Amino acid sequence: MDEAFLHDCLFFTTNRLGRLITKIAEEEFASTGFSPMYAYLTRLVASSPGISQKELAEKLAIAPSTLTRFVDKLEMKQMVERRVQGKTVLVYPTDRGADMVETFREASNRLQERYEAVLGKDAADHLTTLLEESSDALERKH
Amino acid sequence: MDEAFLHDCLFFTTNRLGRLITKIAEEEFASTGFSPMYAYLTRLVASSPGISQKELAEKLAIAPSTLTRFVDKLEMKQMVERRVQGKTVLVYPTDRGADMVETFREASNRLQERYEAVLGKDAADHLTTLLEESSDALERKH
DNA sequence: ATATTTTAGTTGTACATGCAACTAATTGGC
DNA sequence: GCCAATTAGTTGCATGTACAACTAAAATAT
Question: HTH marR-type domain spans which residues (chains A, B) (predicted)?
Answer without folding.
Answer: 7-136
